[in-house]
Amino acid sequence: MIASTRTACLDGFTAVPVDVQVDLGAGLPVFSIVGLTDRAIQEARERVRSAIRNSGLAFPQHRLTVNLAPARTRKEGTAFDLAIAVAILRATGLELAVEGAGFVGELGLDGGVRAIRGALPMCRRLSELGVTPIFVPLENAAEASACGADVVAVDRLGNLVEHLAGRGRLSLQVPAAIPRRERADIDIADIQGQAVPKRALEIAAAGGHHLLLTGPPGAGKSMLARALVGLLPDLDHAQAMEVTAIHSIAGMLPGEGLVRRPPLRSPHHTVSTAGLLGGRHVGFPGELCLAHRGVLVLDELPEFNRACLESLREPLEEGHVRLGRASGTRTLPTSFLLAATANRWPWGGTGVAGEGDCTCAPDVVNRYQKRISGPLRDRIDLVLEVRPVTLEQLPGRQEGETSAEVGARVAAARAIQAARQPPGVLNANLTPAQLGEVCDLEPEARTLVPRLAENHGLTGRGFHGLFRLARTIADLEGRLRISEKDFLEAGEFRGA
Amino acid sequence: MVRGTLAADAAMVAIVGARRSTAYGEEVAHDMAMHLAAAGVVVVSGMARGIDAAAHRGALDGGGRTVAVMGTGPDTIYPPEHRRLAERIASSGALVSQFPVGMGPLRHNFPTRNQTISGLSLGVVVVEARRQSGAMLTAGAAADQGRTVMAVPGSVFNPASRGCHDLLRQQVILVTGAAEVLEALTFDPLSRQVRFDDDPKEDAVGFGDARDRVLAVLRTGSMTLDEVVAAVGAPAPEVVTAVARLRLDGHVRLRDGAYGVVAGRPAQSLKE
To answer: Which pLDDT belongs to residue A359?
Structure first.
């Protein structure tokens, strides 16, 4: 007897529908699964058999063949368990109402249904194909329902079978999302002093400019870099869906719903290129993807290996990265804001002799500073030196603005950009041609710019960087035309 | 071998010092060389990184001549990043080498070169030098050759000034500026009337805005933008713009992330 159920499998960052077909035939009791499966799916035989038995149901003593169609698509993961179990039970003759429904979930030996990776993209794809309802693990219900799919949360296989047989009921109420784990967000009001770096963060957030903070250890570079995410506005619905899907694939959302705040990622400098770009045939999101629409903090930038640093170039410029692998070419969304930190000197001093005096030869210093290659450096609009705040510098307690106050100005500046520029294009992403269209200069600024460019030795890309920064500063002030002051301030944030 | 022109009658003073120098040392070397050059003195140095390069640049900025005594053959510029500097030196002053063509930078040649530097000069100013450094060798050679040895004091905590302080304890002449160098050499600057304007209080420009406060703050020492903002106590954008204007007009310079004032340029040396 033949029975089938519907499920889905991940294909990169999207999902494809999969039909589970079960055939019960005469012969010795053998259980085989075909359809280009990986180890995890082969092991599903043991999980499904035990789960069915331990749910008080009979496992058929027949020759049992499971096909995952289409058979040519490579499949992996544990999300097929539930669909396989239901299809087998139907094949044994149980009357189960599975018409139109979809199943995703992993089974435990005790018949419990366990969380999976990628519930959101799977349910979204199935829902688009008219599959309803979709039975998902309890822990994934909140994220899966975020895409508007009609989902039913399942805790145990036994309860699902009762539900499908029309007896007893699973709650059709989707459990409320657990409020997102309290991230250790740093409010910039918690950072004492540092008025100029804070201003740089505000500009970076407003225009989407990548940022590099240099300075001696203990200056507070990392804390500042981490505070950047708090200044960004909430994600809009489309962005939230993108981000939630990526985090769902990474299995990072147990019990949580839509991700509404921009993510913050800070990989250690020993990270591999696969760790940054994504591994396992690029099916598992890397740090760059996880930072999509959020902030990527790279502490001690020159310490990252060369290949990692160079792999940042395309994402920084294009907002995505195209990877060619044996399994095919994939485009990964990596539109993040880079907040990097670096020591100016390899031994971490201030460069002032006497303060941790240097024993490095000049060329050692030179080589260290050149690890951040020119092309990479060119893509970072804001470069700033940060020094530790001294006690005299602290003007009393808590004079600072909160992230919410600065965030309001950032949001206003972004609204100006949204009204003026093509959708999704922030000042930092403006092409030279677009830059010409949106940069209207005041007369004094016109005469200033050539002097400034000559004085700072700006060429090509650096010149455009200056314009982008000046545009953002003018937007923060709500100025239509870019003034002399905007250019002057921008010039000091280009580093030296 | 000489590239450029080496005038026999010119008064020469050597300014030498550490390759791993500080912003302070380079500023002193630059300003001293600039003022000496403006007074008609030819500044001699070794074209090394750090103090040497600052001295050459200062002399060129002062519109004077400068002589670089090379530790390599005349066809090798060392360090290579000073290629452009070498061109500038040769175009107004001279590149001098006592080594054969094709000789690269060899450790044992530099002390010989140092003796030539002191030999060419009336006096030698050591700006920043660690103990047991090339600059200290130059000072020793200068003393042996009967030249006037001078040293610039620095912070007692700074290892790069320790050699200078050793020299000063041995009673060499303490100098803090070009005027004192000339005085030590009892050198009448070719009957030119030169007014040295290196007292920072005198060149208060008076912009009538935040720039004045920024300059006042920066005169106490070089600092980062953030430190300037904290010291001035005005909103960051306003102070940053003021600093930017000052930098654009050449009153302030940025080095390794810290801003510092550019000491007063020589007030119009009257060249009649």
So the answer is: 58
First to last CA, chain B: 34
Q: In terms of Cα–Cα distance, which of A334, A267, A258, A321 is closest to A294?
A: A334
Q: How many CB pairs under 8 A join A and B?
A: 94
Work out the number of other CB atoms within 10 angstroms of the CB of residue A371: 16
Closest residue in B to A448 (Cα–Cα): B248
Decide if pLDDT at B199 tops 50: no
Does this model's pTM top 0.95? My answer is: no
Rounded to a whole number of angstroms, the distance from the CA of B144 to the nearest CA of chain A is 30
The first and second tokens of residue B193, run together, are 């009337």
Mean pLDDT on A289-301: 93
What residues of chain B lie within 8 A of the CB of A387, using their CB? Answer: 223-224, 226-227, 257
Instruction: Give buried/exposed letters for B12-47 (b at 16+ CB in 10 A, else e).
Output: bbbbbbbbbbbbbbbbbbbbbbbbbbbbbbbbbbbb
List of chain A residues whose C-beta atoms are within 8 Å of the C-beta of residue B155 = 354
pLDDT digits (tens, 9 = 90+) for B55-95: 999 999 888 889 999 999 988 898 888 998 999 999 988 99
Which of chain B's residues have a Cβ under 8 Å away from the Cβ of A193?
226, 230
Instruction: Find, among A267, A245, A371, the residue nearest to A310 by Cα.
Output: A371
Name the residue among A198, A214, A455 with its Cβ closest to that of B257.
A214
At A35-79, the pLDDT tens digits run 999 898 999 999 999 999 999 999 999 899 999 999 888 898 899
pLDDT at B187: 60
A-chain residue closest to B48, CA distance: A362
Residues in chain B within 8 Å Cβ distance of A194 = 226
